Amino acid sequence: ILLSNSIIDYSNSDFSNSISIHELRVESGGLAWNEHLLSALFAFKMSEQGTVSGDVEYDMNSGVYNMNVLSNHLDLSPIDPFIKDIMAIDKFGGLLSCDMAVKGSSENPTDVALKGILRTENLYMTGPKKDTLLSVGDFMLSIDTINLKNNTIDLRTMTALNSYIKFEMFDNGLNNFTALMAPDSAACDSAEVEMEMSNPFILISEY
Question: CB neighbours (10 Å) of residue 178?
Fold first, then answer.
């Protein structure tokens, strides 16, 4: 099975943003009636900036998957609208690179383990007054093991170069970050619930 030079366009009307994947290539040996393992190689480019490649193996009997992902200079600006749904910020951006091995289960989304290297470059976040709240020139995290099921976090090294964080405490006990958080509301109409379910950051926080 071969899928090559394909395009995927994703649009989210709730957040008025879109993400485009170009030059998508997926290659797999296929699946036989007596074979429960499905494996594939994949690679693609993002329209904004960056490339992603890797391989995945999925056991259809157990639901267990193993995936290796290599990304290079992915533009993080497409997730800006999702963060604005949670915090009242002006802009968020930066570049993401990683070399990660991930193991998990489609039967249990919290059964996830990963290891590898995560790196960001020129990460920034500005506040509603366009003041810099966060700026990290070069951040690298080397992960030995993160296992959500076993509540295990084992990090090798973490470095942050040319970093800046603006942190202010207010008289009411809040700080400048918590003050920007969207207020929780016990009463949400169906439209608000649907919008929350389309925000991946809110979905992740539920786990």
Answer: 10
